[in-house]
Amino acid sequence: MAGEILDNRGRGDAHWRLPPVHPEGRKFALIAAAASLVTALLAWETLAWPLAFLTIGILAFFRDPERVVPQGDDLIVSPADGLVSLIAEVEPPKELTIDDGSGTRGLSSGPVTRISIFMSAFDVHINRAPIGGTVKRLVYIPGKFMNADLDKASEDNERQHLLIERPDGLLIGFTQIAGLVARRIVPFVKPGDLVASGQRIGLIRFGSRVDVYLPAGTAARVVLGQTVVAGETVLAEAGTQQLIEGVSQ
């Protein structure tokens, strides 16, 4: 049940269930299902079966499972499901650092660790807040639709920057990036909204990427090639730097 507290001593109630489908995807599934039904009634089986499988694929793509969000003052959780495809020291995007005239401070300039998470068409595409706080910026940038796995996609592709400020002033910036197939970034929040860590903040349709910019002096707690889960995997602990190694098996 959403909002239920679970812990490592057995508190709470957990059981398997089919994940619900997000409302954003239901209209596409209904269209595909209706087309499949019509073609079946017309005995056009060569079209009816592919459309039926397309309906199932759409329902799977827009699945929206519940997540158990780890609680901790300095924990930064993954905003996306997918593969950690890049970890690099970079300058944050200017949209997250410049004075935008709103009176809201942005990220400080200077290299920080960026974690890039690539979402394939098979991953859950609901994105979640990496920390709890207030949404300070939401900046949409039109662009290209190159492979989101490429480093230059951070600067060339269609994208949306978000900035969240914790009550103690810690700022986390992250960017939703459209990919080859993804053609729309759908926000669920707006500037001024209060969000909890792990709360749903938007989705990207059909394959994409999310970049997270860690605070200065913070190292990743995930490794390159690791699969992460939105709202559950801890990407970093603010102010903590530690070498973490993994072995591919």
UniProtKB/TrEMBL annotation:
The keyword Lipid metabolism applies. It catalyses: a 1,2-diacyl-sn-glycero-3-phospho-L-serine + H(+) = a 1,2-diacyl-sn-glycero-3-phosphoethanolamine + CO2. GO terms for molecular function: phosphatidylserine decarboxylase activity. The modification Pyruvic acid (Ser) is found at S208. It is a peripheral membrane protein. The record marks G207, S208 as: Cleavage (non-hydrolytic). Its main location: membrane. It holds the Pfam family PS_Dcarbxylase. Keywords: Cell membrane, Decarboxylase, Lipid biosynthesis, Lipid metabolism, Lyase, Membrane, Phospholipid biosynthesis, Phospholipid metabolism, Pyruvate, Zymogen. Is synthesized initially as an inactive proenzyme. Formation of the active enzyme involves a self-maturation process in which the active site pyruvoyl group is generated from an internal serine residue via an autocatalytic post-translational modification. Two non-identical subunits are generated from the proenzyme in this reaction, and the pyruvate is formed at the N-terminus of the alpha chain, which is derived from the carboxyl end of the proenzyme. Its cofactor is pyruvate. GO terms for biological process: phosphatidylethanolamine biosynthetic process. Its EC number is 4.1.1.65. The active site is at S208. It is found in: Cell membrane. Binds 1 pyruvoyl group covalently per subunit. One of its GO terms (cellular component) is plasma membrane. It comes from the Bacteria. Pathway: Phospholipid metabolism; phosphatidylethanolamine biosynthesis; phosphatidylethanolamine from CDP-diacylglycerol: step 2/2. HAMAP family: PS_decarb_PSD_A. Catalyzes the formation of phosphatidylethanolamine (PtdEtn) from phosphatidylserine (PtdSer). Belongs to the phosphatidylserine decarboxylase family. PSD-A subfamily. Heterodimer of a large membrane-associated beta subunit and a small pyruvoyl-containing alpha subunit. This is Phosphatidylserine decarboxylase proenzyme. It comes from Tsuneonella litorea.
